[in-house]
Design brief:
Blueprint lengths: L1 E4 L1 H15 L3 H18 L6 E6 L3 H15 L3 E6 L8 H9 L6 E3 L7 E8 L11 H12 L1 E7 L21 E5 L2 E2 L7 H5 L1 E5 L15 E3 L22 E5 L7 H12 L4 E5 L5 H7 L4 E3 L4 H7 L2 E4 L7 H12 L5 E4 L1 H7 L2 H12 L4 E4 L2 H8 L9 H6 L1 H12 L2 E4 L5 E3 L5 E3 L12 H14 L4 H23 L6 H8 L2
Parallel strand pairs: 1-8, 2-3, 2-5, 3-4, 5-6, 6-7, 7-9, 10-19, 11-12, 11-14, 12-13, 14-15, 15-16, 16-17
Antiparallel strand pairs: 1-10, 17-18, 18-19
Helix pairs in contact: 2-3, 3-4, 7-16, 7-18, 11-13, 16-17, 16-18, 17-18
Length: about 500
């Protein structure tokens, strides 16, 4: 597991390290500069020339320290400072005075050439929250035009450290050497597109600096951390869970097939699909492993199942609406609601209240909305986001809000999917690619999460593991098929591997 810090969290932990633990700020800065220097040297950059863009804050001071270290390695370094010199920090002034003894480092008004071995961005740190304008904007644009290896310190200037938003303009890095912990803005879109390869520099800010206040967001950094459930060698089909899925609508059986097959492939022991009569033949032909049932037998089937699923491809007709009400009102089993199940829920305030009460009483509930479905469900309350732009900007906030109101796990699907719960850390998925942005991909995810729940993973863990496996499948499929040619069914085929 690795933490993904907001700008405020990083500033707090930095302050704790210096003021409470007592680490010297100068030592932390020297370590940061050494991490950046080591990356540049290991990259084998030639020629040994550098252009450093530095502000007057501590990020700029990091840049001055790096300029000195590069000079020690034989680099000819040019430094351009941007901003109000009257606002320079004490650490910046100290680093600037040291450079008086390094004639290899020249302070310039702008680049003297079009090509350098390395172009370093040390203009802003993670605390930037305003739009980049004026001299700053011009300096970044100028640096982006230079040829050479582009390296940002901590985060590319112009990227919001928490949201990943581009604040007007930003430095376009080939690599970012970030310090202490990963920042959210380095993995969220669009910021991650400009960060390049992200290298974590260990400088002395550690988990010890949390003092019990853990970061809100984490992700996985090794596949072993989300291993599949253990299989009991003496188990039988009932041991590995029974999943009831209400999927598909008249002459539209694809969602049912994809969800059902994914549920089996992830390890569920038994799957029963409830759909309309028109879909019987195609479901039984394409997934003969699954049992088939009709809406008339839904209540009885709910008693049989360990996990209930509703939503993929069901439309918003009367039959689907009644099935949703029965699964919520008459059931007490773990429940996953997806797609049109979420849209149906958003239009029924009493049903929302019932679901929320059940979640508060301990029923395991998972909702898997994409942005449009999340927006519709949030606006069942009067204080939802004003528009989709607001939702996208505050995606983590609104996903967390919905999880709290429904006492449920919310798998908020986007290019970076969030898994949120009412209390405790939340999860951000960083696996996958654009090849997965295809019809049916969400149906596969539904089947994966449901199958994990059937095998005993609790709702939040099933969501975290499920979206990660889903992303890994996308990466493996597109590595052979390409991002243009991947279909949702391809994800399932790669589950066998």
């Amino acid at each position: 597991m690795k933490y993904l810090l907001s700008a405020d969290e990083m500033k707090e932990y930095d302050r704790n390290t210096i003021e409470t633990i007592g680490m010297d700020a100068g030592i932390l800065m020297e370590r940061a500069a050494l991490c950046a220097r080591d990356h540049i040297l290991q990259s084998g950059i030639s020629p040994r020339t550098a252009y450093v863009l530095a502000g007057y804050g501590n990020n700029g001071a990091d840049g001055l320290a790096l300029a000195r270290l590069l000079a020690e390695e034989g680099y000819l370094v040019e430094v351009k400072t941007v901003g109000n010199a009257a606002r320079r920090t004490p650490m910046w002034s100290r680093q600037r005075s040291i450079l008086e003894h390094y004639p290899e480092v020249r302070f310039v008004d702008g680049p003297s050439k079009e090509c350098y071995g390395v172009v370093v961005d040390a203009l802003f740190g993670v605390g930037l929250s305003r739009e980049v304008t004026g001299d700053y904007q011009e300096a970044i644009a100028e640096a982006n035009q230079l040829q050479g290896y582009k390296c940002a310190l901590d985060i590319p200037s112009g990227i919001h450290g928490t949201t990943g938003e581009v604040l007007g303009t930003c430095f376009e890095a080939d690599a970012t050497v970030t310090f202490g912990f990963y920042k959210r803005g380095l993995v969220l879109f669009p910021g991650c597109k400009y960060a390049g390869k992200v290298i974590l520099g260990e400088i002395g800010i550690t988990k010890r600096s949390f003092f019990g206040k853990l970061p809100e967001l984490f992700t996985f950094d090794a596949e072993e951390e989300y291993a599949l459930p253990q299989r009991a060698p003496e188990g039988n089909k009932g041991t590995f869970g029974k999943v009831l899925m209400v999927c598909g609508s008249k002459n539209m059986a694809g969602a049912a097939v994809l969800s059902g097959r994914a549920c089996y492939r992830i390890g569920a022991g038994m799957v029963k699909i409830i759909s309309c009569e028109e879909n019987r033949a195609i479901i039984q032909e394409t997934i003969p492993d699954a049992m088939y049932g009709t809406y008339e037998g839904l209540i009885e089937s709910m008693g049989w199942a360990d996990v209930l699923v509703i939503g993929p491809g069901i439309s918003t007709g009367e039959e689907a609406g009644e099935a949703l009400r029965e699964m919520i009102s008459e059931g007490n089993k773990p429940l996953l609601i997806d797609a049109d199940g979420i849209n149906g829920l958003a239009s029924d305030w009493k049903l929302i209240e019932t679901l929320s009460n059940q979640g508060e009483q301990g029923r395991q509930i998972v909702l898997t909305p994409h942005c449009g479905e999340l927006y519709r469900l949030l606006n069942a309350w009067e204080d939802g986001p004003e528009d989709m732009a607001e939702l996208k900007k505050q995606f983590f906030f609104y996903a967390k809000r919905l999880a709290a109101r429904l006492h449920a796990v919310v798998v908020a699907k986007d290019a970076r999917t969030l898994v949120c719960r009412e209390e405790g850390k939340c999860f951000l998925n960083v696996r996958g690619n654009s090849g997965m942005a295809v019809a049916g991909s969400g149906d596969v995810l539904t089947g994966i999460i449901a199958g994990l729940m059937a095998q005993g993973k609790e709702a939040f863990e099933a969501g975290c593991v499920g979206v990660t496996i889903h992303g890994v499948l996308g990466e493996r499929a597109t590595s052979e098929l390409g991002e243009h040619g991947c279909m949702a069914s391809d994800l399932i085929s790669y589950m066998r591997k």
